[in-house]
């Protein structure tokens, strides 16, 4: 959204990038994770679990690929 439309001082993407933290539970898809990592940086991503709704199976292998 253009700044003129939102009437914010900065683009919405700047606020999303700088003011929120993101969790990555339930997704073991490297391209999606890498996109998030490139957009917000490692300091804005938190480990989380969807227990009891999601499985932790395969999670260590996924995270070990990135060595965060």
Layout: helices, strands, pairs:
Elements: H1 3-6, H2 12-19, E1 22-23, H3 30-40, E2 45-46, H4 59-64
Please tag this protein with its features.
2 strands; single chain; two-stranded parallel sheet; elongated; mainly alpha; 68 residues; 43% helix
The number of helical elements comes to 4
Radius of gyration, in Å, reads 15 Å
Percent range of helical residues: 40-55%
The domain count comes to 1
Q: Give me the strand/helix succession.
A: HHEHEH
Can you put this structure into words, describing what you see?
The chain is mainly alpha-helical and 68 residues long. It has one domain (21-68). It contains 4 helices and 2 strands. The chain has helices spanning 3-6, 12-19, 30-40, 59-64; strands spanning 22-23, 45-46. The chain has a two-stranded parallel ribbon. β1 (22-23), α3 (30-40) and β2 (45-46) form a beta-alpha-beta unit. The protein is elongated and about 45 Å long. It starts with a helix and ends with a helix. The mean pLDDT is 81.
